[in-house]
Amino acid sequence: MVTATALEAELLELAGSVPDPELPVLTLHELGVVRALRLHGSGAAEVDLTPTYTGCPAIEAMSLDIERVLREHGLREVSVRTVLSPAWSTDDITPEGRRKLREFGIAPPRTRATSGPIPLALGPTRTDATDTTGAIGTTGAAGTVETEPVRCPHCGSADTELLSRFSSTACKALRRCLSCREPFDHFKEL
Amino acid sequence: MTAAGPATVPVTAALALGDDALVLSHRLGEWAGHAPVLEEEVALANIALDLLGQARVLLSLAGDEDELAFLREERSFRNLQLVEQPNGDFAHTIARQLYFSTYQHLLHAELAAGDGPFAPLAAKAVKEVAYHRDHAEQWTLRLGDGTETSHERMRRACDALWRFTGELFQPVEGLDVDWADLESRWVESVTRVLGRATLTVPEGPRTGAWSAGAGRQGVHTESFGRMLAEMQHLHRSHPGASW
């Protein structure tokens, strides 16, 4: 493990301060997608960026924004590298990021002690509020079951139901609050 | 997309997995503007986007992603015949999703657990595909155990695509996978879901005569040529065009 210099740490912080293009309330640091920054010689930096989803179309905008910010800071050459491993998880979203998501009207993902498949609750019709929605997996696979409910970001009620596993972006599910009746996005666990 | 990958990648395997994802992504994208409800429109587009992302990484391991996607002839594609099958009605799309996402989920879980060149991508994809599989299973249950009409249409769809499922377990050069074990777990899972959906496992053959499946060798079904023509015509008409 190469220890980052103070300057690298400072530049990493700067790269991480770039707002997410889809969810501008969050910074890339709070989303947990900026992994590392290395300086090569004077004025050249390489940044490791990881996508939330493999097909996330925002990754190119993120790269350009990081390059711009670092160039404005005086760096001559900036290259952003996409790294896949270790795979990003919603557990990489910082506590501050979760708070901001909730304020923005998006239910934050629940944290998991261990990631991995979760036994599937199969139902033939509309998924009810007490199931493990957003929690999925394969039969017989060991995993943790979500016990914590998805709370409505508007009124805080735990009485919410799943409308669709996929919402405005791949990383969100569409839910509805049964108390205040408002629909809302849920940043689903990955 | 620049993805950091190991120096040696089995090209055959990268093309097989990448083409599966690319072709199914395109098929699912055809639902845009046609899905039965808005939520499904969004769901199918999101699943297509996940697959497209996986395809981009995989094809980039094998060469130039745009050249591979837009400038290859039909016989050079290595995707399964299952994924190129037309969308049909919604039940056909769901049956195709059930068969393929169960396969892809089991396969990527295997690859993610190893230390081969596909492990980093597989570790990401397995989490995405878990949602695709869940989506397909939930719809299979709802349609199978739904009305008389939905049950009948789901049954017809599962039957129609059954003969394409033997090909899923043909060994792919460069992938260190126990294919027989993968197949038995796939059969077990699909049998369980169909059972809960009050459907019966189709009786037709999955391999041998009267079955289909030579996509991995570049032999494709009739509709694939038309799909490719639509997918490639813009790039071929305007080489090098960009947004």
UniProtKB/TrEMBL annotation, chain A:
Residues 145-188 form the PaaD zinc beta ribbon domain. Residues 16-73 form the MIP18 family-like domain. It holds the Pfam family FeS_assembly_P. It comes from the Bacteria. Coiled coil: none annotated. Transmembrane segments: none annotated. This is Phenylacetate-CoA oxygenase subunit PaaJ.
